[in-house]
Amino acid sequence: MEPHPEKRIPVSEPFLSGNEEKYVLECLRTGWISSLGKFIPQLEEGFAKFSGSGYGVAVMNGTVALQLALAALGIKEGDEVIIPDLTFVATANAVRYLGAKPVFVDSEPETWNIDPEKIAAAITRKTKAIMPVHLYGHPCDMEPIMRIAAEHNLFVIEDAAEAHGAEYKGRRVGSISNVGCFSFYGNKIITTGEGGMCVTNDEQLAERMRFLRDHAMSPGKRYWHPEIGYNFRMTNVQAAIGVAQLEQVEKFIALKRKNAQLYGSLLKDVRGLTLQPQMPWAKSVYWMHSVLVNEGQFGFSRDELMAKLKGKGVDSRPFFYPVHQLPPYKPGCSDRDFPVAVRLSGSGINLPSSVKLSETDIKFVCNAIREISNEKIS
Ligand SMILES: Cc1ncc(COP(=O)(O)O)c(C=O)c1O
Fold first, then answer.
1. Number of domains the chain contains
2. Looking at the chain, which terminus has fewer C-beta neighbours within 10 angstroms, N or C?
3. Which one of 128, 188, 256, 312 is the catalytic residue?
4. Range of 254's domain?
């Protein structure tokens, strides 16, 4: 195989190719570097519109977006919130920060997202909300989730940290439930370095989130705090980067989809690899280009494949551990209750997924995988 012109292909890097520098310099030159300034409402309005929602509330990161949404909906100690077992730990931690208990549900084998059919069995008298996660950019099957929530009078908060612009039956994720929460971390589809946003169509809820975000300061009375709030504010500098990124988001999503097609066509006949399928009702944004490795058929385990890719200059990441396996959440949980999440977690890898990837990069990664699979055959 020809060596790649660059040394290493990372899993993800930000693409800061637009007005980011110009807008950040504007903040520095005008002194608007804190959490007041024009870029914050611009990002809130622009991102809410992009995601099909009426209101946006910008915050410091995606984790506090989840915490703020839960707090604004009144989730508190003793409550239970249903989340998928296979997710980034932030989904569970946000629930715990409020003293509530995350209750895990296994994944669907097809979409890798929370299995709607297993949600009802997890509902108790304490359940207050369901927090589905649109994993790796593929939307959850929201209709059955919204139906169960309505039947049991539960809130739904979409953890859309990884799925900016993904569509479920023509609607963008984040806008389908009570609140959608996004992350703008450096590896996300658009980034502000660290950052996040809550979107909602409920004006009162948006107001409540703004209030809690700013130390619960009374809107009409400065330094009067009728309850305990948070400082979850985003800075104007972060928002400046975000506005520049938002100007390019449709282009980024189109590139992600083009890259997914190329990965799909180059890897489809490699034995023992399965790409994340796209359901007929879904339009994924492919935050990550992910594959499952069937060791028996591929010839190497997931971890062996990752190590061999690394040797060829290709970075990859394993899937998240199922949250029930992590020490703070393990007591009382058993792998037997989450067979799909355990299987996905043990066999999945995320391949290089930057918007920046060139066709040459993707061909290089796929050739590397083919070479590794042939090592076993020959
Ligand atoms: C599913 C999910 N939820 C929440 C978060 C938290 O976002 P942040 O890293 O911006 O706090 C992430 C981020 O990485 C995520 O992948």
1. 2
2. C
3. 188
4. 249-377
Buried b (16+ CB within 10 A) or exposed e, 11-22: bbbbbbebbbee
Residue 291's DSSP bridge partners are 275, 349
pLDDT, mean of residues 233-261: 98
Residues in CB range of 39: below 8 A, 6 or more apart: 23, 27, 32, 236, 239, 240, 242, 243
Last residue of a domain, one of 191, 215, 246: 246
Which numbered atom of ligand 1 lies nearest the CA of 187?
A: 14
Taking the centre of ligand 1 as the mean of its atom positions, its distance from the CA of residue 28, in whole angstroms, is 28
Q: From the CB of 84, is ligand 1 less than 6 Å away?
A: no
Are 253 and 242 found together in one domain? no
- Residue 275 and residue 242 share a domain: no
Residues 61 and 166 in one domain: yes
145 in the same domain as 205: yes
| pLDDT tens per residue, range 128-187 | 999 999 999 999 999 999 999 999 999 999 999 999 999 999 999 999 999 999 999 999
Asked whether residue 45 is domain-assigned, the answer is yes
**pLDDT for 4:** 57
Ligand 1 atom 7: the closest Cα is on which residue? 62
CATH code, 186: 3.40.640.10
pLDDT digits (tens, 9 = 90+) for 98-125: 999 999 999 999 999 999 999 999 999 9
Report if residue 121 sits inside a domain.
yes
Q: What atom of ligand 1 comes closest to residue 135's alpha carbon?
A: 1
Banded pLDDT at 375 (limits 50, 70, 90):
confident
**Which residues are bridge partners to 105 per DSSP?**
84
Strand partners, 181: 159, 198
Q: Which of 88, 164, 317, 323 to mutate to test the pocket of ligand 1 (most atoms within 8 A of CB)?
A: 88
d(CA 84, CA 133): 7
Distance from residue 165's CA to the centre of ligand 1 (Å)? 16
pLDDT confidence band for 358 (50 / 70 / 90): very high
Tokens standing for residue 94: 């946000």
Which long-range contacts does 74-77 make (Cβ < 8 Å, 24+ apart)? 74/128, 75/100, 75/128, 75/129, 75/155, 76/100
Pocket test for ligand 1, best of 114, 183, 319 (most atoms within 8 A of CB): 183
Q: Residues 272, 317: one domain?
A: yes
Q: Quick check: CB of 62 below 6 Å from ligand 1? A: yes
The last residue of a domain, from among 200, 215, 246: 246
Q: Is the pLDDT of residue 377 over 80?
A: no
Tell me, in angstroms, the distance from the centre of ligand 1 to residue 117's CA.
25
CATH of the domain at 298: 3.90.1150.10
Q: 137 CB under 6 A from ligand 1?
A: no
